[in-house]
Amino acid sequence: MNILVTGITGLFGSHLAREFGQLGKIHGLKRESSDLKLVGDLDVHWHVGELSDMEFLVDALREIDLVIHAAGLVSFSSKDKEKLYEVNTTGTANLVNAMLVSGVKKLVHVSSVAAIGRSPEHLEIDEEYKWTESPLNTEYAVSKYWAELEAWRGEQEGLELIVVNPSVLLGKASYGKSSTAIYSFVLEENTFFPKGNVNYLDVRDAAKITRLLVEKGAWGERFILNKESIPYETFFREIATVFNKKAPSIPLPNWLVGLGSMATTVLRWVGLTKSPLNRQTAMLAQQKTKFDNSKIQNLLGYSYQTLTESLEWAKED
């Protein structure tokens, strides 16, 4: 089997390539400037180009049996708004169209729990939750939601599709990728912690589950990838213990998050703008949201890495 992985040089993509290498030959999309440090030890047949180039995509799809679309941009900065839609939404639409033209039928689309949407009134969310407009939906979330719609549009036009919606992925702290930046909040010994819950899983578990879903033939379904939902206070305390740092000790008050135009300045004072938390994501982090993983458990009965095991691995060079 020939397996094409987009986003292969990223955190999740690199681990997906490792897992799916058990099933066939890995092909990878990369740009000329891509950093290959996470995949330098893998045997990959490279295709150099962009998701914006349809001719390139059609050529890269020759003799491919399965596509794993893990490419995407994660950003919560207002300056990246257009880029988010260009990469996440238009890039997915281009890939789906190229697959339809090329006759490649099988697609695993890596979405995000952000694409399921958020609402202050619904704190327990499963795969059946319907997107609603909300101030808690970031531009990143909207771009991934639209991207997921493109993937489902592809299924309606003939593709076989599995969608996975991972929560916060825990990789090695040294990776420096967007999801692992959550460690920096504790490593910098910030004072405040959000009052809500964090949903997370080990990136190794996320990749293995995705492979198992393909082996199970779970086409036409979406799956939340999430180990559990725990308070940020507990999560940060565990990170602090493993990394021998001082844990954040003061709950972030809601009034601090809701200061409007003053919020960015105040959050900078308390160190939040150095972390994955800006004003809108700080609002999200105040929510006690739980992403339900029971669909995965009912299908696979999966046994996850413990948080301590994940963090001990994350600490390794």
Give a summary of the structure in a few sentences.
With 317 residues, this protein is α/β, with parallel strands linked by helices.
Overall description:
With 317 residues, the chain is α/β, with parallel strands linked by helices. The chain has a domain at 2-170 and 199-227 and 292-300: NAD(P)-binding Rossmann-like Domain (Rossmann fold, 3-Layer(aba) Sandwich). It is 39% helix and 18% strand. It has 12 helices and 14 strands. It has helices at residues 11-20, 54-60, 81-102, 139-156, 182-187, 203-216, 232-243, 254-257, 263-269, 279-285, 294-300, 307-315; strands at residues 2-6, 25-30, 44-48, 66-69, 106-110, 124-125, 160-166, 168-170, 192-193, 197-202, 221-225, 228-231, 250-251, 290-291. Helix 1 links the parallel strand 1 and strand 2. The radius of gyration is 19 Å and the shape is globular. The chain starts with a strand and ends with a helix. The model is unreliable at 259-277 (pLDDT under 50).
Comma- or semicolon-separated keywords:
single chain, 317 residues, alpha/beta, Rossmann fold, 39% helix, 18% strand
| CATH 4th-level superfamily of the domain at 2-170 and 199-227 and 292-300 | NAD(P)-binding Rossmann-like Domain
Q: What order do the SSEs take from the amino end to the carboxyl end, as H and E?
A: EHEEHEHEEHEEHEEHEEHEHHHEHH
Q: If you average the pLDDT, what whole number results?
A: 90
CATH level 1 name of the domain at 2-170 and 199-227 and 292-300: Alpha Beta
Structural class: alpha/beta
How large, in whole angstroms, is the Cα Rg? 19 Å
Distance between the termini: 33 Å
The proportion of strand residues reads 15-25%
Kindly identify the CATH topology of the domain at 2-170 and 199-227 and 292-300. Answer: Rossmann fold
Cα shape: globular
- Largest sheet, order of strands side by side? 3-2-1-4-5-7-11
Main pleated sheet: 7 strands, parallel
* Helical fraction: 25-40%
- Total helix count? 12
- What ranges have pLDDT less than 50 throughout 5 or more consecutive residues? 259-277
What is the strand tally? 14
Using the 3D structure, state the CATH architecture of the domain at 2-170 and 199-227 and 292-300: 3-Layer(aba) Sandwich
